[in-house]
């Protein structure tokens, strides 16, 4: 395939960015989207030009690093896949593909297509964990009965990879789906009850401090999430928050 790529180039967070057009030839349908960008970068390097910076790690749909806005959609046109799982057979010969970084105040551009998603890390650090007693009087987690439906819902919430597609898809750049998935993961399990009150308040507070917007109630986050995280988690987080704040 021959394609036209319109790619956002930006030196750093303070520099003024712009779209730059690159023609590319010889793209095969079995290539992943990132492999196609690898081919482009090899051509640019051979020409003595600076390659396009983009983030990636596992290339297996697990790490969430490969977060790109492709033709206006987080991770591109396919559903329930990350950018590294998107293949070029999703496009046609002669297509123009617009590639941008995720757009959000809380995700400042580092360079080109790479954004700093450290805000997610700080939300997680605010309460997305379970404190464990390692004094020698620990309790075997496997000895605590857990309702099967609760365990399944908790595991489903835990599949969130923190890619930020929910933020990029939301017109308010809300992080409610991400935060609620991390809250739900523990709210559904007995191990998470000890710190439940502090957890939800701390994580919601940090989410607001990072500059994310409020939930838009349009559901775009669930549709664009590569792991299909359910909106039910937002409802659960709201209930947890109401319960926590009513306790004073």
Brief descriptors of the model:
alpha+beta; single chain; elongated; two-stranded antiparallel ribbon; 8 helices; Fumarate Reductase Iron-sulfur Protein, Chain B, domain 2; Ubiquitin-like (UB roll); five-stranded mixed beta sheet; 35% helix; 248 residues; 11% strand
Structure overview:
There is one protein chain. This protein is of the alpha+beta class and 248 residues long. It folds into 2 domains: 3-111, Beta-grasp domain (Ubiquitin-like (UB roll)); 117-246, Alpha-helical ferredoxin (Fumarate Reductase Iron-sulfur Protein, Chain B, domain 2). Helices cover 35% and strands 11% of the residues. It is built from 8 helices and 7 strands, in the order ββαβββββααααααα. It has a 5-stranded mixed beta sheet. Strands 6-7 form a two-stranded antiparallel sheet. Helix 5 (176-187) crosses helix 8 (232-246). 38% of the residues are buried. The mean pLDDT is 95.
- At the fold tier of CATH, the topology name of the largest domain is Fumarate Reductase Iron-sulfur Protein, Chain B, domain 2
Order of helices and strands: EEHEEEEEHHHHHHH
The first-level CATH class of the largest domain is given as Mainly Alpha
List the uncertain runs.
Answer: none
The beta-strand count equals 7
Physical arrangement of strands within the biggest beta sheet: 2-1-5-3-4
User: What's the CATH superfamily of the largest domain, by name?
Assistant: Alpha-helical ferredoxin
Content-based structural category? alpha+beta
Rg over CA atoms, rounded to whole Å, is: 20 Å
How many helices? The count is 8
> What summary fits the major beta sheet?
5 strands, mixed
Level of helix content?
25-40%
CATH architecture of the largest domain: Orthogonal Bundle
Global shape? elongated
Relative strand content: 5-15%
């Amino acid at each position: 395939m021959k394609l036209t790529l319109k790619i956002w180039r930006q030196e750093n967070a303070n520099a003024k960015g712009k779209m730059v057009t690159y023609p590319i030839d010889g793209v095969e349908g079995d290539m992943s989207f990132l492999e196609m960008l690898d081919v482009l970068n090899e051509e640019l390097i051979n020409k003595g030009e600076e390659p396009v910076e983009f983030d990636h790690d596992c290339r297996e749909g697990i790490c969430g690093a490969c977060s790109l806005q492709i033709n206006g959609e987080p991770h591109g046109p396919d559903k329930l896949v990350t950018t590294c799982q998107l293949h070029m057979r999703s496009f046609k010969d002669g297509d123009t593909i617009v590639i941008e970084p995720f757009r959000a105040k809380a995700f400042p551009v580092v360079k080109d297509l790479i954004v700093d998603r450290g805000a997610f890390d700080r939300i997680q650090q605010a309460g997305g964990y379970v404190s464990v007693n390692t004094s020698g009087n620990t309790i075997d987690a496997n000895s605590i009965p857990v309702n099967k439906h609760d365990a399944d819902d908790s595991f489903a919430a835990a599949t969130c990879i923190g890619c930020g597609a929910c933020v990029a898809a939301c017109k308010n750049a809300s992080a409610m789906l991400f935060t609620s998935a991390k809250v739900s993961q523990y709210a559904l399990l007995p191990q998470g009850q000890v710190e439940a009150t502090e957890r939800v308040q701390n994580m919601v507070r940090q989410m607001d401090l990072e500059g994310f917007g409020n939930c838009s109630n349009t559901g775009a986050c669930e549709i664009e999430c590569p792991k299909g995280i359910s909106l039910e988690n937002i409802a659960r987080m709201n209930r947890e928050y109401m319960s926590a704040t009513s306790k004073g």
